[in-house]
Amino acid sequence: MLPSDPNPAETPVTPTFKLALPALALAALITPAQAQQAPLKVGLMLPATGTYTALGDAIEKGFKLYVQEHGGKLGGRDIQYFKVDDESEPSKATDNVNKLIKRDQVDVLVGTVHSGVALAMARAAKESNTLLIVPNAGADAITGAQCAANIFRTSFTNWQPGYAAGVVASGKGYKRAMTITWNYAAGIETVKGFTEGFEKGGGKVVKDLSLPFPNVEFQALLTEIAAQKPDVVFAFFAGGAASKFLKDYDAAGLKKSVPLVASGFLTDGTLEAAGASGQGVLSTLHYADNLDTPRNNAFRKSYALTYKSNADVYAVQGYDAAQLLAAGLTAVKGDFKQRDAMVAAMRKVRIDSPRGAFTLSPQHNPVQDIFLREAKGDNNEMRGVAVKALADPGRGCRM
Ligand code: PHB
Fold first, then answer.
1. What angle do CA 182, 183, 186 make, to 5 degrees?
2. Which pLDDT belongs to residue 37?
3. Rounded to the nearest whole angstrom, what is the distance from the C-alpha of residue 301 to the centroid of ligand 1?
4. Which residue's CA is minimally distant from atom 7 of ligand 1?
5. How far apart are CA 390 and CA 312, in angstroms?
6. What is the whole-number distance in angstroms between the Cα of residue 329 and the centre of ligand 1?
7. Is the pLDDT assigned to residue 28 strictly greater than 80?
8. Is the pLDDT at 31 greater than 80, yes or no?
9. CA gap 281, 383 in Å, rounded
10. Is there an atom of ligand 1 within 6 Å of 137 CB?
11. Cβ(236)–Cβ(165) under 8 Å?
């Protein structure tokens, strides 16, 4: 079986008014450009196996929800999906993305979760000038040194939630911090952001601990934290591994003795599995489940009705990736060949996101509020705005 899934069943091509109009009248309504418009080919490259599986699933559901809410179309174009499971495996990333670019000849790439995989996607997208929308991976370089006119992101940079957590932790008066994460771009850059925010506020990171992705043998590192007794621990893990970390932190007795301030991914989509061990954990992220706005409430209701599960930050980011593509396509009436005009519209966009409205930085990354949240039941509840309208510095970007 091919790994791609064109899924034409989800892309009705018959305009609903066709039956009501005689053929001649219809011909007068459709411009030649529209008549030629085949479905827009969207290549979804996301993890469908491994510790990030649930994250990829929520992104895809979020993206498809927005398309479904708009009659299966974006900017008047039917959408045809092609899919590749990237397994969160950087060594396979170039081959995988080329299945979508070269074999399936997609118009737009949407992906992925893992920073290392996304960096390879961004390289391939830049070389082939394929439009890329990143709905999660935070690798700073994607909207920094590796930025490009055809690359956009609807999620965050790793620096953003990390920096905000540092501001929160120093604001609480903590002086000595330890950090713990996976030793790859997302972990390293998130910790760097935390350190910047924390030390700017007068704190000191006394030790960084890490293990290779996607390992979950936390025990030796937790023993070291218990021995050093810092004022606070900052952690970045995500997906299935994050629930295990929360449980192990609790089982080691640390939940009672050393407060955690985390990147919000530690507690997003992981609280049910973490049970009591996740409760009360403070974290920073650009989304909180209980944002009581008409936009967020409508989105969560629509998602829950469609998928019989609750939306999380990943679903929001996927939904907003579809919104961004829709904004570009609408500006050119679905004529994807007008790429410059489309990109110009995407750069100026104001996305009405469930997280709150956001714009894009000149490097194409969201400028957004980062919330302080507390884990309560299965939700991450808003406790305040940690940093308002935070823009990544976009270091090294020349566009
Ligand atoms: C990343 O690799 O950039 C990454 C992965 C999972 C997250 C957040 C960031 O939840």
1. 70
2. 79
3. 26
4. 238
5. 21
6. 28
7. no
8. no
9. 12
10. yes
11. no
Q: What confidence tens digit (pLDDT) does each residue in 295-346 have?
A: 999 999 999 999 999 999 999 999 999 999 999 999 999 999 999 999 999 9
The residues facing 285 across adjacent strands are 371
353 Cβ inside 6 Å of ligand 1: no
Instruction: Find the 369 Cα to ligand 1 centroid distance in Å.
Output: 18
Confidence tier at 36 by pLDDT (50, 70, 90): low
**331 ligand 1 Cβ < 6 A:** no
pLDDT of residue 290: 93
Strands (E), the chain: 40-46, 73-74, 77-85, 108-110, 131-134, 151-153, 176-182, 204-211, 232-236, 260-263, 282-285, 350-351, 358-360, 366-376, 379-390
**Distance, CA 238 to ligand 1 centroid (Å)?**
7
pLDDT above 90 as % of the chain: 90
Radius of gyration from C-alpha coordinates of the chain:
21
CA of 146 to the centre of ligand 1 (A): 18
Is the CB of 114 within 6 Å of ligand 1? yes
- Our mutation pick for probing the ligand 1 site, out of 59, 121, 136, counting the most ligand atoms within 8 A of Cβ, is 136
Map tokens 């708009």 to a residue.
70
Domains and CATH numbers, the chain: 40-156+291-360 (3.40.50.2300), 159-285 (3.40.50.2300)
Q: Which residue has the tokens 């995989």?
A: 117
pLDDT band, very low/low/confident/very high, at 170 (cuts 50, 70, 90): very high
pLDDT of residue 25: 46
